[in-house]
Amino acid sequence: MKLMVLKHYLNLVLNKKVSDHLISIRHEQDQSFLVPVPEPLFLSLISNDFIILACNNYQLSWCSIPIHPDLKYYGRGMLKLSYPCNYYNAGNALGLDLLNHPDLVHQSDKIAAATAIWYYKETGMNEFAQQGDFAGTTQRLNKSHCSDNVVQMARVSIYHKVRHCLGLPKTTVNLIC
Questions:
Q1: Which end of the chain offers a freer environment for a tag, N or C, measured as fewer CB atoms within 10 Å?
Q2: Is 81 exposed, middle or buried (0-12, 13-18, 19+ CB in 10 A)?
Q3: pLDDT of 91-131, one tens digit each?
Q4: Which domain holds residue 112?
Q5: What is the pLDDT of residues 166-177, one digit of tens each?
Q6: Cα dihedral 131→2→111→11 (10° resolution)
Q7: Measured between alpha carbons, how far is 176 from 87 in angstroms, rounded to an integer?
Q8: 104 lies in a domain?
């Protein structure tokens, strides 16, 4: 059902861009696929360094916007939107005050999907996907994935499964970054 809601809400056709986007979402969601998981919970599930990582509220950023000192800007939503600038810019693009209400990204499937699509387009992942460059989308989403062959191969395996489910042919081009 959530896949149908996402498909309808995003108003996209089932093509290679969607498969790239869906695999990115699935990987960022700790393999739970379309179930938003807040990053501190996600980190606690995959790392013994939870306390250190969860204490990072991502308030330091590359832009100079006023932030609320009590809010945490850790990754939320389908693609783990993080950092004040991303909350601010995504909020502006969607007509929402995500800078002062970052939990909205986790609390609403519609907002989680909208911020994922905003990030996907904003970072140029959309263009990589249109060119069939899965490695490029991986690098834009999280460069550290490119240095871990196990992570890359897991993403590629899921990518092939998603493409198969969408009726797209298997590809062997631009899979590894």
A1: N
A2: buried
A3: 999 999 999 999 999 889 899 989 989 998 898 888 888 88
A4: 2-165
A5: 888 888 888 998
A6: 50
A7: 29
A8: yes
Domain assignment of residue 172, yes or no: no
Report, as an integer, the average pLDDT of 149-160: 86
Place of tokens 């498969």: 19
Domain of residue 108, CATH code: 1.10.530.10
What pLDDT does 97 receive?
97
Sign of the C-alpha dihedral, residues 124, 129, 133, 137? positive
Amino acid at 113: A
pLDDT for the residue numbered 21? 53
Contact yes or no for 26/19 (Cβ under 8 A): no
Tell me if the pTM is above 0.85.
Answer: no
| 111 neighbors 104 (Cβ within 8 angstroms) | yes
Which phi and psi (to 5°) does residue 11 adopt?
55, 45
- Residues 90 and 119: beta-carbon distance below 8 Å: yes
pLDDT above 70: residue 56: no
16-34 tens-digit pLDDT: 555 565 556 555 555 444 4
Count structural domains, the chain: 1
Alpha carbon distances (Å) from 166 to 3, 23, 78, 140? 12, 12, 20, 23
- Does residue 148 lie in a domain region? yes
144: in domain: yes
Residues in a beta bridge with 76: 81
